[in-house]
Design a protein that fits this description.
754 residues, alpha/beta, ten-stranded mixed sheet, 10 strands
Length: 754
Amino acid sequence: MKQQTRQVAASAGTASAPGYGFGTAPVFLASISTILGAILFLRFGYAVAHVGLWGSLMIILIGHLVTIPTVLAVSEIATNRRVAGGGAYYIISRSFGTNIGGTIGIALYVSQAISVAFYLVAFAEAFEPVYEWVAAEYDMTDPDPRWVSLPCTLLLVVMMLTVGAKLGVGVLWVVSAVLGAAIAAFLLGQGPESIRPEGLNLTARIEGGDAFGIVFATCFPAFTGMIAGLGLSGDLRNPQRSIPLGTIGATLAGMVVYALVAIKLAQSATPEALAGDQFIMAQIALWGPAIYVGLGAAAFSSALGSILVAPRTLQALARDKVLPVPKLNRLLRKTRGRAREPVAAIYVSGVIAVLFVILGDVDFIAQILSMFFMVTYGALCTVSFLEYFAGNPSYRPTFHSRWYLSLLGAVMCGLMMIQMNILYAFLALSLMVATYFGLIRSRKGERDLTAIFQGTMFQLTRRLQIILQKNRVEQTEGGWRPSIVAVTRFGERRLGHFDLLRWISHRHGFGHFIQFFQGDYTFAGETRARAHVNRLIERSEISGAGIFVDSLICPSFDMALAQTLQMPGISGLPNNCVLLEFDKEHPEEVEETLRGARLAAESNFNVLVLRSAKYRFGYRSSIHIWVTEDNLSNAPLMLMLAYIIVGHPEWRRAEIRFFACLDSEHAERETHHLSDMMTVGRLPISRQNVTSVCCATQEDLEKEVAALSSKADLVIAGMTADALRSDQAKQSLRAFGGANDVLFVHSSEAIVIE
């Protein structure tokens, strides 16, 4: 039995073993040889000439403000899951899903495939002395560099098809050594005195030089090779260790080398000399030909690194069926041999490289390449930033970056894309967005940005609620806002107080709508309640209501309300109002509503009771507030609610009228005080809409309301604590029979309008 177990374990280990079992060194070499590529030898003298040493150092700094956060984010993502073949795409898609991974992966693959052409075109320029010798020796015009770049492209593709990644890594050791020797020869050289400047000038540059954005776009591909080593993820013995070490080490080493080269160029040649000769480094080096050899080695090694990575990215995309054509997915995921070489993907990558090599313009390809890399890295940093705040328990990397670094990388990518070329930036972003929406339409049910945003919003809400709870203090004067919980058993059949809640909660407050279901709690009952709540949520979405909808199953309404009063506020602040409702045509509902209002008032909640009518708030054009002698303490809350309601778009044409029914010797003074309060409080009620009404008895009040407010869309009336506790409480809720929808208000807290 033990023997069988050992055999199974051995076979499992063999099946899951990496293709070649490389260590950290190939990751570092693939990255550093791509970083120290053609731009270093061909275009960095151009950069120093056009933007000066200070500008060149800024290009290095800004470029690494993009690449360092990206490489840290990628390193973090790489340690979150088991890593297989497919490089950056595989790592991203396994952490964030194939919708996000496929969007980034397609852009990444295109940039990698174009990189092959870019580096081979630069490689062909390393033979400029040979071109000059041929032109002079055979009396012919300058040979076309494509005579070199096209055959080399084909040779590189053939080499990948016949030998594979193992030879590629072996070659990386050789070309990296040559590259190091060439850079050392340059740094140790002096150059002729005829081109040396008088001292080191940080700002010296040629007149009328190219803009910073153009120079940055041309030079940015120099820094993009830091994730080239990720393409070997399926061939690494321990990718979770090798990827962070190799990529971060190569990025930092490359930054140091570029800074040293920029300083050496500015110290050794004038801006005019730097601008006039793209091979100025050959004049400065100890041995001039070393620069041409180094350029050839750098360009060839960078192309080699790209051709190692690009087919494996395409193969991984096909394996996950990301490409829109099923037959293409089946073709491109095919492999050959024990090392699983992506043969078909190498052919496709070779074709793309050949097409761009035919263009033959290094600067044009560099700008296109920069934009693709920028949009890819920006998306990577954005997703990493959002994932941090989403707090997904399944996201457990062993290497940790920082959220602010990912945010910095995303912001810098966006800014530099606009700085480089706003049209190209718009096209690149449009392509990414179109790819993403195409994937989510064809791959429904898979994780996408919605899941990350939901997680982010969950974490943000959680943190805000905790902060609000920690800082909870007594409400200051003038700082009151409604936090209302509404309880009803008629949520689907009568939407009057659902509408009222959404109007009050539109901007200034928070509403929690609870549908009460009578009975003992069971799972089947919970399922039915959820179905009802889902229909209410759909209605809230249709109406644009910003309220939280929930359900509660209890044996009685009184118990449901008691539980509701003990609930913490969903907004993070405690609830301060309870909204109840009954129908004008169903007087039997008054008893239950009254018990709920008394319980809420005894618990020190503000009580709002809506008496609904068939009128359903009419045209939403008028709100009438009625204040009596014994209800003056409720006036501030009544005025505040009226002001909040008319702030909703559905009530934007509404007029508020205020009626003061005061029958005492101080009636005129109280009316004047209320008018001043509205003016000072900047409430939308003019003094002309404040009316003093003489009402000696309740019957007089009823007559006045019937006469003045029979056509009002909403009447707001006060309700005292004594009236709630008295035997005449039912009669109080049936008052104002001549009005339509009436909102009775009892204020349990002192609200100041100022």
